[in-house]
Design goal:
- This protein has a single domain, classed as Lipocalin (Beta Barrel), CATH 2.40.128.140.
- About 5% of the residues lie in helices and about 50% in strands.
- Strands 1-2-3-4-5-6-8-9-10-11-12-13 form a twelve-stranded antiparallel beta barrel.
- The protein is globular.
- It is mainly beta.
- A hairpin with an 8-residue loop joins strand 12 and strand 13.
Length: about 300
């Protein structure tokens, strides 16, 4: 399992933001609709609220950082997210049954609370995620609902082989740093390397990579922009060392379908971001390398993101 690098805007300076992000291989718009994949990490829906003080459980670790208000930097803030991810095996248009060695179906319904320390040049986040797999994750139901919208373009589905119910916990720490040529002035370039680690019964991994942008009036990607209009072309790459993925290795406490995981997974991404005052939209394409022995060599999927910043 490769954790997607999040899109959106981390909030500082007393602002708040709501973000809606949809991941889907149906958004691979360079392909004809009937040729787009419907497999592996096939869908993700994430609703995020950013702003306000850091959670109480994290404040003692933030070394007296002030709450993010106008002019306070570095400062502390928070993020809340509710989301659902769906994973499916590859099937043919005529047969809903997966081939031998294909991954099982899996759904993941979760809630995340995170504490952040941000400044124009750095970003640190400690996040705690709780959720469920199996039928309570509503993965099968949501895929059925989505497929009813365009049945002529969708492959049949068979959820008889599904990761079973299990409560899940993930604790993740991520650190990003930023170097830039012209901070918020004219045409500029910036690069933000990052490193992160996750532990829990759902995923245990370490990952590192970078994201770079070329655009107009580039402020820090995790701070709100006061410019009337900004745009950026984005690109990045990352690698992940995987010790465990419940979606591939099966349930922790009882037998379930499992195929095992590849120890090293890579990804590359590119996209476009447009922002006018407090509103922004983004499109990003990502491709991931093989996650398990019988998996596809590459799997492309895409994200659509909309953010509204409230002062």
């Amino acid at each position: 399992m490769l954790m997607a690098v999040p899109l959106g805007t981390a909030i500082s300076q007393g602002s708040r933001a709501f973000t809606v992000r949809a991941d889907n291989d149906a958004f691979d718009f360079w392909m004809l609709p009937w040729n787009r994949p419907d497999e592996e990490y096939t869908s993700g829906v994430h609703l995020t609220y950013e702003g306000g003080d850091a959670p109480r459980w994290a404040r003692r670790f933030l070394h007296g950082r002030p709450i993010c208000t106008a002019g306070a930097t570095p400062c502390r803030s928070s993020r809340m997210e509710i989301g659902q991810d769906i994973y499916t095996p590859s099937v043919s248009p005529d047969d809903p049954h997966a081939s031998p060695g294909a991954r099982p179906n899996a759904g993941w319904l979760y809630l995340t609370q995170a504490a952040r320390v941000v400044s124009p040049s750095r970003f640190d986040e400690l996040a705690v995620t709780v959720g469920v797999t199996g039928p309570p994750s509503l993965g099968h139901l949501m895929q059925q609902v989505a497929h009813q919208a365009a049945p002529e373009f969708n492959r049949p589905t068979d959820w008889t082989q599904q990761i079973g119910f299990e409560p899940g916990l993930i604790v993740r720490y991520e650190a990003r740093r930023r170097a830039t040529t012209r901070d918020g002035e004219g045409l500029g370039v910036d690069i933000a390397p990052y490193a992160a680690g996750s532990v829990g019964n759902v995923v245990a991994s370490a990952d590192a990579g970078f994201d770079t942008r070329l655009g107009w009036h580039l402020g820090a990607p995790w701070l709100p922009s006061n410019e009337g209009f900004t745009f950026a072309f984005t690109a990045g790459a990352s690698g992940q060392a995987v010790a465990r993925s419940l979606f591939l290795d099966g349930n922790t406490f009882h037998d379930s379908p499992r195929v095992g995981h590849e120890p090293l997974v890579g990804s590359g991404r590119a996209g476009l971001e447009l922002r006018y005052r407090g509103l922004s939209v983004a499109y990003r394409v990502q491709t991931d390398t093989r996650a398990y022995a019988a998996g596809p060599r590459w799997h492309p999927w895409s994200s659509l993101v909309a953010t509204a910043i409230l002062d």
